[in-house]
Amino acid sequence: MKSSGSKYVSIVLILLVGYFSYQWWFNPRRAIKRQLGELAATLSVPTSGTEIDRIARIARLRNYFAPDVTISLGPSGPTLTSRDALVGAVASWNPPAGEWTVSFVDVQITMDSGTTARAYMTVEVRTTDPRTSQPAFDAREAMVKLADQEGVWVITAAEAVATLQRP
Amino acid sequence: MLVVASAVIFGVALLPVRLSGISMEPTYTDGEMNFANRLAYAAGRRPARGDVVAIRMAGMSVLYVKRIIGLPGERVEITMGTVLIDDQPLLEPTVVRKAPWNVPAVTLGDDEYFVIGDNRAMSAQNHDFGRASLDRIIGKMLF
Predict the structure, then answer these.
(1) In the prediction, which pLDDT does A19 show?
(2) pTM of the entire structure?
(3) CA of A105, closest CA in chain B: separation in Å?
(4) Which entry of B23, B61, B123, B140 is annotated as an active-site residue?
């Protein structure tokens, strides 16, 4: 009886380990959240960032976007229609000096199929006002479309969502 | 008992909010703490003009805190800093200084409210305001 009981406990343990491993590594929602978290870290600028760090981060951006990605920053902003255009825009942008922390919060993922998904989120940017040295904060809603391309979830489209509709 | 009461109060009724930014000055200042009363609009109660409300973004982590100036069905316009509701000037005792903003007229839908901050001395480009749908208004600021 005792050995039979141990066998059942072992099976249950193996099933639990398998379940949590799947949830952690292979669940598409988790993989997408992990990918978005890495993208947020890549978009963030540390205080001690050097020019080489900046170039490395811009180069890493290619890993998160499809070649034909479409980025829309709202009615008053530009629309970018390729990964090269996006990387070029980021490279030519000269942000104010200081630390930038980008994070995606309240991320809600909808699986449209096994290989396509949408993520709706709030994008937070925390920085320091260069004039006053006071912390500054901004947030915007965004809708992102993703696709699984060769085992990696990449962004195929992203658009800003207006929380408050201006006339 | 205390734990259960706290869970009910802060999980259901009151959402703690730390204000960030200057768009609601002088009513609220940057860094101030407040609570959004999530039961304010329960049981069929609707937001009213003058209410300061919390408006959700994608979730509850980041909220706008704004004052309601326009109600469903009304026509809202701002001319040289003066808010016009159905062509009548709106008295705004909470607004201390007004920059000469001009915002074209808009007629609000059945479930739409026009929300704006009290700080109209700042540039309109740096101030988030506009129409918010009722389903995004999660509560009224407690004080």
Answers:
(1) 85
(2) 0.88
(3) 7
(4) B23
Catalytic residue at B66? yes
Judge whether B101 is closer than 8 Å to chain A, CB to CB. no
Give B71-89 pLDDT, tens digit per residue: 999 999 999 999 999 999 9
Dihedral sign from CA coordinates of A56, A71, A32, B60 = positive
Q: Considering only A23-37, B86-100, B107-121, which range has the smallest mean pLDDT?
A: A23-37
Q: Which of B61, B66, B104 minimises the CB distance to A105?
A: B61
Q: Cβ B62–A105 below 8 Å, yes or no?
A: yes
pLDDT at A2: 57
How many residues are given for chain B?
Answer: 143
Residue B86 contacts residue B79 (beta carbons within 8 Å): no
DSSP A63: G
- Residue pair A47/A54 in contact (Cβ under 8 Å)? The answer is no
Residue A93 CA to residue A78 CA, distance in Å, equals 13
pLDDT of A26: 77
B23 flagged as catalytic:
yes
Beta-bridged to residue A136, according to DSSP, are: A127
Per-residue three-class SS string for chain B: CHHHHHHHHHHHHEEEEECCCCCCCCCCCCCCEEEEECCCCCCCCCCCCCCEEEEECCCCCCEEEEEEEECCCCEEEEECCEEEECCEECCCCCCCCECCCCEEEEECCCCEEEEECCCECCCHHHCCCEEEEHHHEEEEECC
Question: How many other CB atoms are there within 10 angstroms of residue B132's CB atom?
Answer: 25
Minimum CA–CA partner of A129 in chain B: B21
Half-sphere exposure of B27 (CA within 13 A, CB side): 23
Write out pLDDT tens, residues B103-116: 999 999 999 999 99
* The residue count for chain A: 167
Q: What is the ipTM of this complex?
A: 0.89
